[in-house]
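Q: Hi! First time doing this. I have a protein sequence and I read that you can turn it into a structure. Is that right? Here it is:
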Amino acid sequence: MKQIKTTYNRILEVSDDAKQITLPDGRYYQRNGEYYPSVTYVLSYYPKGKFFEDWLKKVGYSADHIVRKAGEEGTQVHEMIEAYLNGEEMNFLEYGRPMYPPHVWQMFLRFVDWWEEYKPTLIEAEVHLFSDELKVAGTCDLVCEINGELWIIDFKTSNHLQTTYDLQAAMYAKCFEECFGKKVDRTGILWLKSSKRKAAKGKMQGKGWEMYESSRSIEENLEIYRTVRTLFDLENPNHKPAFTQFRTSAKRDL
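A: Yes, that's right. Below is the predicted 3D structure, encoded as structure tokens:
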């Protein structure tokens, strides 16, 4: 079996005769023969809260469609940012036609606004991280240096900031230190759908974006994560992804 890594960080195992593909559940990462759940999968067990319950009642059966559409837009913004960081020229128009939905392009430009204003030193982008201590893995959006400080930054395109974002960034800081032996100074959420309308003195923000930092320390957020992990392990005693197999071709008999 050979493996093909795609841009959306999932592994396709292709049989030697190329007639069958095995697609594992994307919520797990494989490490040294073990399966580690992703940070975001573990954090899906964090209580959603009253705001989510009220929203669910309001949108009803449309919830799945709304969440899926928002996820697709977020993925698109992340891929655009990754291409930009890799040195590619990004263009809204190609042969006079829009390549992206205007609101998606604008979220990308908010990232560019932040990048050009603060000029971070790029360390890693879309880097796979893991913790053998906590048996978890994930993909961090950005590791960079700003004014001599090492930052872990996650990009968010959601309508609201959530507590799980604090825990996610803290876990990436923990994983980065374990993987690279370097202590992270600060973690932040670059929120690309903020209500901010202009820059403000002493704050990292601009029109439509802001850098959010948790009021809790990295260690405090790690403790909360460990509590959520206890609930996750209780409901998922056997950590192993589900696998889907399918043929690569089909032809009707004549």
